[in-house]
Design brief:
59% helix; 14% strand; five-stranded mixed β-sheet
């Protein structure tokens, strides 16, 4: 139930973001069989079978601008998601290095540290680990009592970090993978926002059109009277 609610909230968020970049797009209805000029000035018929909505020059430019700006926002979102993941990973890396230095100091002081902590030090820097072992041996020569240290790494904190990283990496993948589908959905919503305007005084014979995306035309030059 909670997962479904989160998905619904995410979908609402995506829709609201789309609406921020969207306008209404005015278009003329060109009757089927009407001859117009294409972008090269050649006479052509947009459709023999059905009327065609042709965007005004202003609407064509606005539609392109809106989609470009929305695409940029999606890219920004993806980059931000990646940056969050990198920041968390770098933060953990810095914390681990500080803990490794604490392990080194404890060993050099002759203290006993958990085997797991020794292993982390060894994996980080074998020479540093060997130096710590040598210092540990020397320090214990003059000690009557060896202090036993707890691990520098808390198991619950490690599990929480792993869970957080999984969530961040999931968000990062989704932000990148959904750019294409979101742009397609944005285009679909743009089509539904096309508004037909009167075309009684339009000289279609002098109208020059340009193919816009794959499913409709836009005006290259607006010859409205």
């Amino acid at each position: 139930m909670l997962s479904f609610f989160k998905e619904a909230v995410d979908m609402d968020s995506v829709t609201n973001t789309m609406l921020r970049f969207m306008h209404s797009y005015e278009a003329y209805r060109v009757p089927k069989g009407t001859k117009v000029k294409n972008s090269r000035g050649e006479e052509t018929v947009l459709s023999e079978d059905e009327d065609v909505l042709v965007l005004t020059e202003k609407a064509t430019n606005q539609m392109r601008k809106d989609k470009d700006e929305y695409a940029k926002q999606l890219e920004i979102n993806a980059n931000m998601a990646q940056e969050k993941t990198n920041l968390e990973a770098n933060k953990k890396d810095a914390q681990d290095k500080a803990k490794i230095m604490a392990v080194f100091r404890s060993m050099a002081n002759g203290d006993m540290v958990p085997a797991s902590d020794e292993r982390k030090l060894m994996e980080f820097d074998d020479k540093m680990y060997q130096a710590a072992k040598a210092l540990q041996f020397l320090s214990r020569q003059n000690k009557e009592r060896i202090k036993k240290k707890a691990s520098e790494w808390d198991e619950d904190e490690e599990l929480a970090h792993e869970e957080k990283m999984r969530e961040l990496e999931k968000n990062q993948r989704e932000a990148r993978d959904t750019i294409g589908p979101n742009l397609n959905e944005f285009s679909d919503k743009q089509r539904r926002n096309i508004v037909e305007i009167p075309s009684d005084n339009i000289d279609f014979a002098n109208m020059r059109t340009v193919q816009f995306e794959s499913s409709f035309e836009g005006i290259l030059m607006d010859f409205s009277i």
